[in-house]
Design a protein that fits this description.
Blueprint: H1 11-26, H2 40-51, H3 59-65, H4 70-81, H5 85-102, H6 107-113, H7 119-130, H8 134-139
Helix pairs in contact: 5-6, 6-7
């Protein structure tokens, strides 16, 4: 099978390129991306969470630690990252869990390390975030 090059001079090709570009733009975020915040308070929070993904402190407690109100912190975090603090924290935890699982840690131990109280809570969060169980993720 040989593919012909697309030529912008050809109106059909130009339309096809436009449709493809529209489809790429409409793709949802990849589940393994973790957008970085820009606001100094949000950066401080992200640093705290990255230093200890298993930290189970409430957003209110974390906001106090970075010198912001919970509402202000939630607002700037969503503006900067497109995610709530809870969504961002869960994504961070899943990325750390993937690293731990890839290093050979059991799902139960990885889940506990990243802040989940039970294996079932970790499994449910993992499936919700990544679309598969930890065992299925690594069997692919």
């Amino acid at each position: 099978m040989r593919l012909a090059p697309l030529r912008m001079a050809d109106p059909v090709h130009r339309r096809l390129i436009g449709v493809l570009a529209d489809q790429v733009v409409a793709l949802p975020d990849a589940p393994l991306q973790l957008p970085a915040p820009l606001d100094p308070r949000a950066v401080a929070l992200a640093t705290i969470l990255q230093d200890d993904p298993g930290d189970t402190s409430s957003v209110s407690v974390l906001a106090h630690r970075v010198g912001a109100s919970r509402r202000s912190l939630e607002r700037v975090f969503r503006t900067d990252t497109g995610m709530t603090v809870g969504q961002w924290r869960r994504r961070l935890r899943m990325l750390e869990a993937l690293r731990l699982l890839a290093a050979g840690m059991t799902a139960t131990a990885a889940g506990a390390r990243v802040g989940y109280a039970t294996p079932s809570a970790f499994g449910a969060a993992f499936r919700a975030e990544l679309g598969a169980t930890p065992a299925h993720w690594f069997s692919q």
